[in-house]
Design a protein that fits this description.
The complex is a heterodimer of chains A (253) and B (358). Chain A contains eleven helices and ten strands. Chain A has 253 residues and is α/β, with parallel strands linked by helices. Chain B has two domains: 59 residues, no CATH class; 216 residues, MetI-like (MetI-like fold, Orthogonal Bundle). The chains are: A alpha/beta (253), B mainly alpha (358).
Chain lengths: 253, 358
């Protein structure tokens, strides 16, 4: 199995404080890889490092991030910008904040497409509607012309996923995509993710929700205080958690 | 206080109100501001159609009518109502060399509508002075209408330039931060250091003397814009600085949107409610700035009228005493500035959520 994304010895520091300590893992193509850990374990820092969007105070002091055999850390700003959204897209935790309240869903998706493709306006519009239908939003034409606050929480999360998918990226980063939804909605969004899994979409799922991880992930990486404590296939980890931290995480669940 | 009325929530189900529509509803309720808005619309309309509404061109002079008082329109001839007409006046001087205008009743000049492409007028050699004449016997009313084109447009164009500059510089400085921010803000401070009017004079002095009227107009606009943009840029920079931390900006970055697109589409629109108020409150300072420059003879040059340079005629006490109507342009400046200020205040209240429904 080829690794689409490979993080090697990634070390991130803020001043003397080490946030990520020698983190290495791979995300195989066509699989869902879960990055699991409690708050403050450095999951989001990993995602931000991959996207090249670390806050200015944080510094990558060691390691490399290989995506399709290219080291992301050696790319310049413009190459990185092109990669984001086009090749690696992100699904955010809270879609209400991740959408600009002054623009319609359709406009914001169109903006992503415009940044990454050379399609004409009508082609882009068609693509936006296609993707909105793909994430099972009812009445895509209507949805595209709505503002974020005019959608329900579940619809917004679907719209967020549509925005991530719109430029057909090779890898999707999903940062706790269901943590702000109620249980019934979580189940529905999970169905959608399961469909992505069937379509062999490569995804890095960042979560502390074991239920979601158990249902969706192929590979699991456990992160504690910026260190990888355990990794392996989901069956292995679920059935034989070796590390104490993993066991404690599963107990909470 | 408990109420027995059914509490109809206007925002049920139907269309959710945007911040904009809430603000506009609240603005419309402000009667004074609405009145001012109509006054401004009226002024701009008059100015746009000045060629038609004014009986004379701005440079149509007749020196024998220097400081001629306003013409009265007569409706009666020996007790009989007839078509309105005017008498001309003849100029003579008294023993103190003061102008004396005597009404010459020997010849009547009927008022004609749609006269040579103007709304109204009288046949030559009769002249109609709605609000009196200036030193060169030019109709003040006509000149006010034509002068309004300059005075009223200078505010709009000036604001357009300085706000484009201010928004862009502020947006860029706040979004990128760091070195770019410090650099741009130091440049802004250089402009803010010098008191506005002296900067205006200094900038005016570097412009050649032999400019034609259009070039002078543009120069004045550019000078005024140069003064206004810096303080706006500083405020927009502050807003941009806080907006760039918002999740939707980070999300746009994560989606690979370019920095300029983010600034223009996701940051600046969020400063709109502030900018709109600031625009309304800044326009008057441009109108006054032009008036100030023109008053000193550094702005628009005679014979092209502007409210400012027309007022410069009123600098002498003698003229004011004998022809008080030459101060009328000042009333126009005053009314316009008041209207913009009141509208700006009303907009600020309308956009301020803390100032609702007292």
């Amino acid at each position: 199995m080829k690794n689409l994304l490979e993080v090697k010895h990634l070390t991130v520091q803020v001043g003397q404080k080490v946030l990520l300590d020698d983190v290495s893992f791979g995300a195989p193509e066509g699989k869902i890889t879960a990055l699991v850990g409690s708050s403050g374990s450095g999951k989001t820092t990993v995602a931000n490092s991959i996207l090249g969007l670390l806050p200015a105070a944080l510094e990558i002091t060691k390691g490399e991030i290989l995506f399709e055999q290219r080291n992301l850390l050696s790319l310049n700003k413009e190459q990185m910008r092109f990669l984001r959204g086009g090749h690696i897209a992100m699904i955010f935790q809270e879609p209400l904040w991740a959408f600009d309240p002054l623009m319609t869903i359709g406009q914001q998706m169109d903006e992503v497409l415009a940044a990454h493709t050379s399609q004409g306006k009508s082609d882009r519009r068609r693509r936006v509607l296609d993707v909105l239908a793909k994430v099972q939003l009812p009445n895509p034409t209507d949805m595209a012309d709505r503002y974020p606050h005019q959608l329900s929480g579940g619809q917004r999360q679907r719209a967020m996923m549509a925005q991530a998918l719109v430029a057909a990226p090779a890898l999707i980063l999903a940062d706790e995509p269901t943590s702000n939804l109620d249980v019934t909605l979580q189940a529905k969004i999970m169905d959608l993710f399961r469909q992505f899994k069937k379509e062999e979409m490569s995804m890095l799922l960042i979560s502390h929700d074991w239920g979601m991880v158990a249902h969706l992930a192929d590979e699991v990486i456990i992160l504690q205080n910026g260190q990888v404590v355990e990794s392996g296939s989901v069956d292995l980890i679920m059935n034989h958690p070796r590390h104490k931290y993993t066991q404690s995480l599963m107990e909470v669940f | 206080m408990p109420s027995h009325k059914p509490t109809g929530n206007p925002r049920q189900e139907g269309k959710p109100q945007s911040q904009w529509s809430i603000a506009m509803t609240s603005f419309r309720r402000h009667r004074l501001a609405r009145g001012c808005f109509y006054v401004l619309i009226g002024l701009y309309a008059c100015v746009i159609f000045a060629d038609f509404l004014a009986p004379y061109r701005f440079d149509d002079e007749d020196r024998s009518y220097s400081y001629c008082p306003s013409t009265t329109i007569e409706f009666f001839n020996q007790g009989h109502g007839i078509w309105p007409f005017v008498y001309v006046r003849t100029l003579s001087f008294n023993e103190n060399h003061q102008r004396i205008y005597q009404i010459d009743t020997t010849k009547k000049y009927p008022l004609r509508f749609f006269h040579h492409g103007h709304l109204f007028g009288v046949d030559e050699p009769g002249r109609i002075y709605v609000w009196g004449a200036d030193a060169r016997g030019r109709d003040l009313f006509s000149r006010i209408l034509h002068g309004g084109r300059i005075s009223l447009s200078i505010g709009l164009i000036g604001v357009l330039i300085s706000f484009s500059l201010g928004l862009l510089v502020g947006g860029i400085a706040g979004y990128f931060g760091g070195f770019i921010d410090s650099l741009l803000m130091r440049v802004c401070e250089m402009f803010m250091l010098v008191p506005g009017f002296y900067l205006m004079l200094a900038l005016r002095s570097v412009v050649p003397e032999n400019f034609n009227s259009l070039q002078i107009y543009l120069t004045v606009v550019v000078i005024l814009s140069f003064i206004g943009w810096a303080s706006l840029a500083r405020i927009i920079r502050g807003m941009s600085l806080s907006l760039r931390q918002r999740d939707f900006v980070l999300a746009s970055q994560a989606m690979g949107t370019s920095d300029m697109t983010i600034i223009v589409k996701h940051i600046l629109p969020h400063t709109l409610s502030y900018s709109l108020v600031a625009i309304m409150l800044t326009i008057p300072s441009y109108i006054l700035g032009e008036a100030g420059l023109s008053l000193l003879g550094l702005g628009i040059q005679d014979p092209i009228p502007s409210w400012g340079n027309m007022l410069s005629d009123a600098m002498g006490i003698v003229q004011i005493q004998f022809a008080p109507w030459i101060m009328i342009p000042g009333i126009f400046i005053f009314v316009t500035v008041m209207c913009f200020n009141i509208i700006g205040d009303a907009l600020r209240d309308a956009f301020d959520p803390m100032f609702k429904e007292s």
